[in-house]
Amino acid sequence: MTKKTITFLIFLSFFIIYYIGSFSKISFGDCIGFVLDVENRKFITNVTPLAHFLYINIPIFFTKFLNIDSVFAMRLMSVVPAALTVGFVYVLIKEFIQENWIAVASTVVFGFGFTFWRSAETVEVYTFNALWVILFLVYSIKSLKDNSKNYIILAGIFLGVSFWVHIQNIMLIPGYLVLLYLLRSDRKKVLISLVSFITIFSFMFFVNYLNGIEAKYVFTSKKGPWVQNTFEQSFLDLIKDVVKSVLYLIYNFNIFIIFCVSGIVYLYRNFKNEFFFIATASLFTLGFATFYAVSDNYVYFIPFYLLFIVFIALGIKKLSAKYALIKLKFAPLFIPLFYCFSLFLVSFTPQGKKFHQDKLYKGGLNYYMLPWLNNNIGCIEFTLDNGKSIDNVEALKEASNEFIQLRKKYQTLEEIRKL
């Protein structure tokens, strides 16, 4: 089969997997806030870290002008970009290796990674953001390999557009600068790419200026002290951050992380320019995700995971010359069993049992350890039943009640409860 055919089949397969596992009812977290924004059908006109300009305005357009249900629109905004991203992961890996079985197996490992899989099953910005990041990475690598003017320009454009989805992507700027330096022999191509990027990026400040918003609020938010908290962490806090990032890595890639070191060595020896670009992008995205002081920082690792899977794929390629690793090509298909087995083990520990009871209002351990969300407990029914929790859920209930009032204009309360 051709690369395009395999890419399409990967997209289709993961679209089906993610769609089947998608939330049955609007889940907890920031989901109800995003759905509420779309249900209001009022376009976001500012570009701030919490606004997610493109992520919100695209479904608002489809809801407002094509009368698509807001919940369905937001489901597709997670599932479709997620499946597309997995397809492009295969394209990225194929830039380095010829063996289809390695590329497909490694792509499945990424697609079944817990953090990305979970993000595909709920209402969140991270899979949509991942799509723009993987496009930037693919065309950056293509420009290094083929030295194509079009590829360099596209890399700059995709990076610039990604900032309109999530400002986290400023961590990719150092990698982009390394890319431009490596291609410095063609000043015209580099200049066009850089101007394209700066123009798209700068327009964010112009939009905020029109709204009377200070320039700094492109990068920071009035609603949270996360940046300040990040710089005020103690040395012990930083150590804990590193330990958590390692545990996240293990839970996302389990036994496949053993191939990463060989992959890094192989990349350095055989693709020097690509190595410097990927290493720089990895260092900054990993560092940001590790030390950013927010409770749900695990989702910020996704851009790094898009790079980390290249290390795994190249590691498998390198070691397959010594060992018959092709016998393990179907092993990634069993990754879901790893999550089930982990849940089984943790559920028998005293800490696991206590945690399960504390978080039972949103599904307990199942919610936290299994990536799929079908048959989940919804925040709407939790709000209607005046559910109790040890966590602060007042903001969630407030958004849920506002959503309920909007829906009551054309749905019964029983119909709303099922959302």
Radius of gyration: 22 Å
| Oligomeric state of the chains present here | single chain
For the terminal residues, how far apart are their CA atoms?
41 Å
Given the helix and strand composition, which structural class is it? mainly alpha
The share of residues in helices is 55-70%
Poorly predicted ranges: none
User: How large a portion of the residues is in β-strands, by DSSP E?
Assistant: under 5%
Order of helices and strands: HHHHHHHHHHHHHHHHHHHHH
Shape: globular
Number of strands: 0
Largest sheet: none
Mean pLDDT: 90
Number of helices: 21
What does this protein look like?
- This protein is mainly alpha-helical.
- It is 68% helix and 0% strand.
- It has helices at residues 3-21, 31-40, 53-66, 70-94, 100-111, 114-121, 126-146, 149-162, 173-182, 187-210, 226-231, 235-253, 260-270, 272-291, 302-320, 335-346, 350-358, 365-369, 379-384, 394-407, 413-417.
- α4 (70-94) packs antiparallel against α5 (100-111), α7 packs across α15 (302-320) and α8 packs parallel to α10.
- The model has no long low-confidence stretch (mean pLDDT 90).
Structure in a nutshell:
This protein is mainly alpha-helical.
Key words describing this protein structure:
mainly alpha, 419 residues
Annotate the secondary structure layout:
Blueprint: H1 3-21, H2 31-40, H3 53-66, H4 70-94, H5 100-111, H6 114-121, H7 126-146, H8 149-162, H9 173-182, H10 187-210, H11 226-231, H12 235-253, H13 260-270, H14 272-291, H15 302-320, H16 335-346, H17 350-358, H18 365-369, H19 379-384, H20 394-407, H21 413-417
